[in-house]
C-alpha cells in the first residue's frame, strides 16, 4: 500500500482494507454446510452466478471464440485444488474460460470441481472436462462462430495423442522428419499431425480447414496450427492485464483467493469502454466530414 499507486491510497486506508477483508463473506454461513454436500463452490456460488450473468449481458462476441484454462495460485485447503506442474504456481483453483479471441473479453467461465453430485450439474459417469466445455460454449452454438462443435459451429483444437481413434501413422515417430505434416480427411473434418522436432508430434483437429495448406515461410507449419496459435493464449493475456493492477492479498482461504481473481471483470469493463470509445470517435469523425463537405460547397 505504501509504495503502490497513489490512487489506491487515496481511495481507502490500509487498516480499513484489512478490516473489510477480515469480515468479507459471500454466502449465508448458517446454510453453507448443507449446500456444500451438493456444491463444492457453495461459499461463492451466488456471487459467481451474478458475475457471469453481467459478463454475458454487457457484450456481444465476434466470430471467433476460444476456451482455455486459468490456474489461480493458492496453497489454502481446498478439496478441488489442482496440481499443474507446468504452471508457475503449480497448485491452485482451475477456471475454464470461454472468451472472445480478438478482444480477450471473458464471456463465460466455470470452475473445475472434479467429481461431485448430479445436483451440481456434473455427472459421475461422464467426462467432467468434456461436459464442462460443452456448457461453456452452449450459448453460442448454432450462431456461425468458430470455437478454438456441431451445426453452424466450427471447431479448431489440439487432441491428445493417446486417443485410440487417432491413426498410428499420425503418432510421434523417430523416423518422421522435422517440420513434416500428415493430413487425414473425413467429410468436414480435417486431422493434421505436425512434427516440430524429432520424436514429437502435434495433432490438431479442425472443421474449419479442408485442405493441406502449409506456410513454407514459417517452418512449413500447416495453416491449422497457425490459426490455432493466433487465437489461443487469450487467458494468458488476460492474466497479464490483471496482474498489472492486481488487488490480490496473501490468504489461505480459497473463497478470498477466488474473489480477488474477479478483477478480470475490470478487463471486461476495459474492453467494453475501448469499443464504446472507438465507436464514438468514428461517429465524430464521420460528422466532421459531413460538415466539412457542406461548408466546402
Automatic annotation (TrEMBL):
Membrane-crossing segments per the record: 254-275
Domain PiggyBac transposable element-derived protein stretches: 3-263
Which domain of life, per UniProt? Eukaryota
Q: Which UniProt keywords apply?
A: Membrane, Transmembrane, Transmembrane helix
Q: What is this protein called?
A: PiggyBac transposable element-derived protein domain-containing protein
Gene source species: Rotaria magnacalcarata
Amino acid at each position: 500500500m505504501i509504495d503502490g499507486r497513489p490512487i489506491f491510497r487515496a481511495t481507502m486506508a490500509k487498516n480499513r482494507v484489512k478490516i473489510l477483508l477480515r469480515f468479507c463473506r459471500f454466502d449465508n454461513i448458517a446454510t453453507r454446510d448443507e449446500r456444500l454436500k451438493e456444491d463444492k463452490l457453495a461459499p461463492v456460488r451466488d456471487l459467481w452466478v451474478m458475475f457471469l450473468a453481467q459478463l454475458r449481458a454487457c457484450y456481444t462476441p465476434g466470430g471467433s471464440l476460444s476456451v482455455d484454462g486459468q490456474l489461480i495460485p493458492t496453497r489454502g485447503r481446498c478439496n478441488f485444488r489442482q496440481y499443474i506442474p507446468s504452471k508457475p504456481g503449480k497448485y491452485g483453483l482451475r477456471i475454464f474460460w470461454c472468451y472472445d479471441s480478438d478482444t480477450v473479453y471473458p464471456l463465460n467461465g466455470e470452475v473445475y470441481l472434479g467429481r461431485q453430485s448430479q445436483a451440481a450439474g456434473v455427472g459421475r459417469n461422464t467426462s467432467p472436462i468434456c461436459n464442462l466445455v460443452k456448457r461453456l460454449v452452449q450459448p453460442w452454438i448454432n450462431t456461425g462462430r468458430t470455437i478454438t462443435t456441431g451445426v453452424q459451429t466450427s471447431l479448431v483444437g489440439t487432441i491428445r495423442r493417446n486417443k485410440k481413434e487417432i491413426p498410428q501413422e499420425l503418432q510421434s515417430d523417430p523416423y518422421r522428419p522435422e517440420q513434416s505434416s500428415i493430413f487425414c480427411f473425413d467429410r468436414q473434418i480435417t486431422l493434421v499431425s505436425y512434427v516440430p522436432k524429432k520424436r514429437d508430434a502435434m495433432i490438431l483437429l479442425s472443421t474449419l480447414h479442408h485442405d493441406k495448406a502449409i506456410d513454407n515461410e514459417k517452418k512449413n507449419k500447416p495453416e491449422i496450427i497457425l490459426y490455432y496459435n493466433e487465437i489461443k493464449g487469450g487467458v494468458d493475456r488476460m492474466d497479464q492485464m490483471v496482474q498489472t493492477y492486481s488487488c490480490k492479498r496473501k490468504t489461505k482461504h480459497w473463497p478470498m483467493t477466488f474473489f480477488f481473481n474477479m478483477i478480470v471483470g475490470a478487463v471486461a469493463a476495459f474492453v467494453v469502454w475501448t469499443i464504446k470509445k472507438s465507436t464514438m470517435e468514428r461517429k465524430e469523425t464521420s460528422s466532421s466530414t459531413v460538415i466539412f463537405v457542406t461548408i466546402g460547397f
